[in-house]
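Protein Record: Sequence and Backbone Structure Tokens
======================================================
Scope: a single protein chain, as residues and as a discrete description of its fold.
Tokens: labelled as protein backbone structure tokens, with as many entries as the chain has residues.
Position: the record begins directly beneath this header, with no further notes in between.
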Amino acid sequence: MPNENKPSEMIRVPTPLIPAVRELSRLHRQGRTSELLHSLDELILALDSNSRSANSTNQTILAICERLDNLESQLSGESNSKETPSIHNLVDLEQKIEAITNRMAQFASAIIQIQNHLNNQPRRPNKSYYNNSYYQGQTPRIQPLTEESLASRLGVSVETVRSERINLQPPLFVAWCKRKDTSGIGWEFNQDTGLYHPVS
């Protein structure tokens, strides 16, 4: 049986283990060495089994990583093989867009030519063209008006029309009527007919 009073051997331990070694030394001095050794053996076995399971876990993780790498390489290979048709489809699409653009340019050119052709055609006269004094640059043919009708047209009373006709010179009366008339037409009084006639 080994001598328990044998002097202790000096060994170096990592700094984090110094408190644990001191505790072991204290328990040894209290005569609890056999219990201590038994507990240390169990702890070492547990650590060994944990390290083995950690190794197996590491191996499992490595195997999974390897399988992922394989899958990734397969997928990248498939995507590369699919890229060629995609590029081909893209080229086809660009060609179709270019063809449509060319057709649109042709249509635009044709529309411009048609417009130019229509603009250069002599215009056919129509009734509304000849009846519209705006296009002819002439005063429309308006029938002569009675004093009552002219007053209504100018928005004044009959007495006002009569008073202005009597007090103003004929050119001034025409100018006064133009200001009052919504169409800007001047009116002059004809002594023979007793009616007011439009003046251009």
Notes: The longest strand covers residues 186-190. The CA atoms of residues 134 and 140 lie 8 Å apart.
